[in-house]
Sequence to fold (320 residues):
Amino acid sequence: MFMAGLQDFDISEFDQTPVSFESDGHILSGTLIMPNNASDPPVAVIVHGDGPQDRFSADAYLPLFNVLLDAGIGVFSWDKPGIGQSGGNWLDQSMEDRTSEAIAALQAVQALPSVPADKVGFLGFSQAGWVIPAATTTMTPAFSVLIGPAVNWQRQGAYFTRKRMEAEGATEAEIAAEITANAQRNAIILAPDYTPTQDDLHSMTPARFAFVARNHGADAKQSIAGMTGPVLAVWGADDLNVDTQTDAATYKAMLPDPSRQTVRIIPDATHGLLRARYFNYQLADQWPAYAKALFLFEGRRAFAPGALDGITNWIKAQVQ
Fold:
């Protein structure tokens, strides 16, 4: 059983092709991974969440990739700008820049002779909630899967603070006061004409602060209302990063075509659809050693029951 989990971190049996594309004047590098013995398979273009992600997210993506590949779905993922073999700097980006990059990646995959252009779609996480909806207002992918997508940057920040303080044992009054103080402070220090001091940065680098200042007004509602093509938006019921109930309700109310666009909440699942009992942390660096070891041991079984099968079955249904 332990070996079964480890095998989910190995993709060497699948055909892998380096693919590069240009966005915002930089060459970005990724890998196209295709399933075995599949005729004209669909391909999921991966749109990262926040942070300095490489194409495999330090191998954390590999169990998911193996599930997709075993289901006959190809995967394309690339290093974020300034990470791995990609030029540029992801911290210099706006959400509009990220949207242009995602479109360029999807079009680069569609242009490959080995890929059926009409079966290429998006699969993205968290911050991709500001990227994929905007992309699909200007082009129509074969499918769009969003896992834990955020809708409003500032509301997500308040929710993140609430869940952190709840875990620390704070009272409701303390949480409300902190959220109010943060909103008042952010209105000042994140304004375009404000020059931050060292105290304003706290633990952030100047580049990270600039990234937040550039993007803290992000709100996906208008883009959600204009999304085209089949959409699956899915959240974990125990998400500590994004307000599942509020954001799922927003998608249900605003997606324009309910007949092709689906909203799901997975019970006992985290922000990344892992089993909440064992893996529910807000940040990757909060994982204790035993959780990391368990993730290696479990592989695809670390995900909430039915979560990944639901995604693969939905993708295949859209392209048949």
